[in-house]
Amino acid sequence: MSKQNNYSDKEFLIDDVLRDYSNNSKDKDLLEQISILRHDKINEPVIYMGSGTCGLGAGAGDTLEAVKKYLDEKQVSAKIVETGCIGLCAVEPIMDIQLPDYNRISFQQVTADRVNDILDSIFQLEVPQADILGQFDTPEAKEWKGVKYLHEHSFFAPQKRIVLNNCGVVDPVDIREYIARGGYKSYIKTVNEHSPLEVCDVVEKSGLRGRGGGGFPAGRKWKFANSAKSDQKYLICNADEGDPGAFMDRAVIEGDPHKLIEGMAIGAYAIGATKAYVYIRAEYPLAIKRLEIAIEQAKDYGLIGKNIFETGVDFEIKIKKGAGAFVCGEETALIHSVEGKRGMPRPRPPFPPTRGLFDKPTVVNNVETFANVPAILQNGAEWFASTGTENSKGTKVFALSGKIALTGLIEIPMGTTIREIIFDIAGGILNNQKFKAVQIGGPSGGCLTEENLDIQIDYESLVNVGAMMGSGGLVVMDEHTCMVDVAKFFMGFIQRESCGKCIPCREGTKRLLEILESITSKPNASDPTETLDRFKGMMQVEKLSKVIQDTSLCGLGQTAPNPVLSTYKRFKNEYEAHLFDRYCPARVCQNLKVYKIDVDKCTGCTLCIKKCPVDAIIGTKKSPHFIVEDKCIGCGACYEACKFDAIEVV
Amino acid sequence: MSFLIKVNNKEIEARNGETILDAMERQGIQVPTLCHLKDMLPSGSCRMCVVENAKNNRLVTACSTPVEEGMEIQTHSSGVIESRKTIVELLLSNHPDDCLYCVRNKNCELQDLSEELQIRERRIKGVKNNIHLDRSGTSLVRDPDKCILCGRCVRVCEEVMGVACIDFINRGSQSIIGPPFDRTLNTSSCVNCGQCIMVCPTGALSEKSHFPELISMLNNPEKTVVVQYAPSISVSLAEEFNMPAGGDISSIMNAALRKIGFQYVFDTSFGADLTIMEEAAELVNRIENGDTLPMITSCCPGWVKFAEQFYPDMLPNLSSCKSPQQMMGAVIKSYWAEQLNKNPEDIYSVAIMPCTAKKFEAQREEMTSRGITDVDAVLTTRELGQLIRMYGIDINNISPEATDSPLGFRSSAGKIFGASGGVMEAAIRTAYNMITGEELLKFKVEELRGLDGCKEAQLKVDDLTINVAVVNGLANARKLLDKVNNGEKEYHFIEVMACPGGCINGGGQHIGAAEGAVEARMKALYDIDDKETVKTSHKNPEVIKLYKGFLGKPLEHTSHELLHTHYYKRDVIL
Q1: pLDDT band at A84 (very low <50, low <70, confident <90, very high)
Q2: Cα distance from B29 to chain A (closest Cα, Å)?
Q3: What is the pLDDT of residue B572?
């Protein structure tokens, strides 16, 4: 599109759409122009490439190159749009094609080698048989016969997408499309029609609670800051998503950065902040890049800057890159980090809304919290509150990972059961294995088992069963998972990520980890105190955990023992097997695996001798080999190598 | 506004805005602390002061939780004791078990807590960090293995001293406190003030000891071992022997030092008198000739290094005078050696200082005269205490003795050097005389006394108004110098002491001083000033004799060679 066109789009969007935000007229020209900007009405084919981090990781870059090459060779004129992630990370790369007058149609697992076939048939208006994800319901467009609608897909059907509605659908770095789809209207309406306190009221009434884990009512937090008197206030968006298995914030920013900016702009107005920061980890380069572009676009449209739309409101937004520390998700540590100091929490009170960044009143909210705000202000508190449970309103985004058929990102109404998520939406356990547990709420959360699958997800119900909402990571485990190993993994993570400030967290998590390491360590008969120390250590676990929970300075420490406590509570038998029998029931703990060679099956081919990294296998050619147990490190290289199934794990 | 809260089922008064700890301290209710520092914002890192809030049975830290009306607190419930005990056990599980070899044996807060909480079993075991000792500095030794990361040193270094040469490094159990990039202390901006040692609860920070060399020198018949002690030593040494703060025991100290084997004993206050003669002359000179002003004192080696690092542009403002310690040392190895017919190279000159930075100063290359080091070894007040105990001297049962002469007489102006404002006051007395030829009617300058961080005075000398300022605590110096630099303030003369309150609160003083000890030491110095008749340096008969027979006049050739020095910009990691 030419610059001239861009300019007129901008004028149109600012004057006819944003300034005239309450205009619901059915003016044909207006609607026509909007539908063009929305990509509902197109003149040439549009190819959408899912280019979030997940898509690119799965090969979207190569696919895109193949598409360009195809278009070049066949001299086909088409527009290419790189979108964020639609949520089905498991089947990336996802490519959508929209032909003029036809519904947009989506394909899964489109690797570079499959591009030609798909494009060939689509351009001939034939639907390729394999790997169709579904078709969109594009207004005034023709349906593809025999193709299911995307919103009927079992992954999408139970979802309610408020935060993610644009993700994977729109061009994230095209402000025109965002505005054409109703974006920034909510902001302009808010600053024109509501007082800051009214905004706080609406958000409080909506029941929106912090999506970063704590679940504190957002409106109430905003009110504290609103009522604080200060010459300067700050708003901070916490995008320091640090839980293993969590990628909600990344996907929102990569897929729809303008929604975050709009939510923050409304939040800043509500508390009287003119300066805002997005604290985001440097490991999210794509999200940072897209957010930077989006901020520049918003500035260009006068949505960020001084005297926004002549309302007298100033709003400035800066990106602050963090070095990737889990503890910087804690708000006081985050604030220190933004100030340029080492990210370490400080005691609260004073709480940030009273004294925060540079000692000024500050509100810190999570990406998802802000992303909910435009819709709340647009549709009203009641609309938002109509979804969810009594005390947890709206929807929640979850990142599904682990041994699950469809890993990805979903947004479901509060009150959905975990069973629905795992089995209905995500298609159950990978390879039809048996479900064992699900870790919810990241390392600080807890693991839930079969008996908890029917609880309705909300803040309180999760806490009641010893887990927590956290930021929304859901790691699913099947029967081949060792729960002691899981606890050890999370404990190791927490131990490394502790800031080191307070004693119980710094020293205590290290000791808890060491206890877990001791029960999964290789039995050592030559050390006479080893067994006693192992038993003594295990006996300390619960007491030590309680002190760490009770006395740690911040949330990281207070929840640090959860991975051990919740697995210990629910899988005591597994702990006992490790401790007493020195046996890992799931056969995961390498140190507890004993490999033996079946002399009847062994042909004496010496392959295993060659593969063994520690020379633990002895034997001569053509006679059965033997594994020296003391030397064996349990790596399993021999097991993998043996062609005669002669090696067994006992 | 005040209200009542219940602590251990007893009502006590609490004031709005204060913490639980503040309220309890006023009532004498004690809870253990490790990271707490009076008059500083709570850090909440050690969690030792947890108390139980009866309303919700939750543990809160007394140091950081504000009091609320109707609050009910239990300070020693079983849950609280168990938690505190576990925290100490966790620390011990990662602490070297070498109390018997530790510099802080019997004066260690961790040891005390372990004893108070009756820890008698190694319940929690694990791998201990094993981090190398940092002996790179000239004054301080850092032993990260003994560090419990309470962070007191970090806060003092940053907030009180304005230096910030150490901070937390790494994460989790690998966290340590150290200089930038985990380099050694000698490459950092550490000014060697030793205030970190004063707040360290364990033996993680200590002064570098010169004991072995000193003891071998004391036993070397070819060496003449002489000792000088700083003005503030005599009013603070008593605390090393559990005596109340502020007693002046100079004559007992003289006797003890001779018993140990020091052949000649001097009071550095004589050197201070000499400093005043030179410094006052320099000030008068600068004012009369319109040279660089304000002139800033240079007796404090912590401050000098600070200026060399952070304010290199202001080095011309620093007085070129050596410190009293170095002047004394220079005069001992020249004038005094000549008088007693001794070879300066056979003299081993020891200084006892309330300061760790003095160890650094004595080793500066500029601190030599005619190729011979002015001072050979520096001991802190603490080390003197250790030495006296090592030699089995009962200071309660010893006959007082006087210092040696020549160089044995001091004015009380030299003595008050030990308190912040003392140098300024002493300099004013002599400068007044140098300008007017007369004596001040009133020697006391009340505005410059006391423990305030920044003090100012205006003085009329004939028709000249002299503006002076006194700062202590380098963070305060930073604030003042920035004001001077941006033209907000104008002075003729500024006294800077690195440590809060001056040398009486130096980094070499007694660790674990009682509350009010610093005030008591200060009072003791000013009491001496009140009592004595020779209150000005220029009236010190031995100073007069020294100038007449050896130095000539202040700032003249011999003085310049022996008693003055220069400074240079330092490259350190800032």
Answers
A1: very high
A2: 21
A3: 87
What is d(CA A183, CA A179) in angstroms, rounded to the nearest whole number?
Answer: 4
Could you confirm whether B49 is annotated as catalytic? no
> Are B185 and B239 in the same domain?
no
Catalytic: B355?
A: no
Looking at the fold, whether B176 and B51 belong to one and the same domain comes out as no
CA dist B228 → A116, B13, B304 (Å): 93, 50, 21
Task: List, for residues A476-490, the tens digit of each pLDDT value.
Answer: 999 999 999 999 999
Which one of B207, B235, B264 terminates a domain? B207
Res A4: pLDDT: 45
pLDDT at A212: 86
Closest partner residue to A508 (CB to CB) among B50, B90, B125 is B90
Same domain, A363 and A437: no
Residue B366 bears catalytic tag = yes
| Residue A10 domain flag | no
pLDDT band at A2 (very low <50, low <70, confident <90, very high): very low
Residue A3 has pLDDT above 70, yes or no: no
Asked whether residue B81 is domain-assigned, the answer is no
| B338, B375: one domain | yes
For residue B82 the two structure tokens come to 């168990």
Q: Which residues of A610-627 are buried (b: 16+ CB within 10 A; e: fewer)?
A: ebbeeebbebeeeeebeb
B124 contacts on A by Cβ (under 8 Å): 511, 540, 544
The low-confidence residues of chain B, meaning pLDDT below 70, are none
Is B282 a known active-site residue?
Answer: yes
Which candidate in B60, B63, B87 is best for mutational testing of the A interface (most A CBs within 10 A)?
A: B87
Give the domain-ending residue among A360, A385, A410: A385
- Cβ-based burial of B463 (10 A; exposed 0-12, middle 13-18, buried ≥19): exposed
Q: Which amino acid appears at position A213 of this protein?
A: G
Whether residues B171 and A507 touch (CB distance < 8 A) is answered with: no
User: Are A285 and A334 contained in the same domain?
Assistant: yes
- The answer to whether the Cβ–Cβ distance between B79 and A533 falls below 8 Å is no
**Domain end position, chosen among A442, A463, A481:** A481
**B573 domain-assigned:** no
Q: Which residues contact A157 (CB under 8 A, 6 or more apart)?
A: A151
pTM over 0.95: no
Q: Does residue B280 share a domain with residue B193?
A: no
Tell me the HSE value of B55 on the side-chain side, using a 13 A CA sphere: 9
pLDDT in tens, A545-567: 999 999 999 999 999 999 999 99
Is pLDDT at A441 greater than 90 in this prediction?
A: no
pLDDT tens digits, one per residue of A316-337: 999 999 988 999 999 999 999 9
**Residue B411, SS3?**
coil
Structure tokens at A304: 């960020």
Q: Which ipTM did the prediction report?
A: 0.91
Same domain, A468 and A492: no
Q: Between chains, do B94 and A507 touch, taking CB under 8 Å as contact?
A: yes
Instruction: Tell me: do B126 and B222 sit in the same domain.
Output: no
Q: Is 80 exceeded by the pLDDT of residue A342?
A: yes
Which residue, among A503, A518, A521, would best test binding to B if mutated, counting the most B CBs under 10 Å from its CB? A503
What is the nearest CA distance from A226 to chain B, expressed in angstroms?
22
What's the confidence (pLDDT) of residue A99?
95
pLDDT above 80 (res A7): no
Does residue A180 sit in the same domain as residue A297? yes
Number of domains in chain B: 3
If asked whether residues B406 and B545 sit together in one domain, one would say yes
Q: Is B361 a catalytic residue?
A: yes
Q: Please give the residue range of the domain that contains residue B72.
A: 2-76
> How far apart are the CA of B81 and the nearest CA of chain A, in angstroms?
11
Domain of A602?
593-649
Give yes or no for a cis peptide into B179 (omega within 30° of 0). Answer: no
Asked if B358 is an active-site residue, the reply is yes
Rounded to a whole number of angstroms, the distance from the CA of B90 to the nearest CA of chain A is 6
Which of B319, B323, B420, B559 is catalytic? The answer is B319
User: In b/e form, how buried is each residue of B32-43, taking b as 16+ CB within 10 angstroms?
Assistant: bbbbbbeeeebb
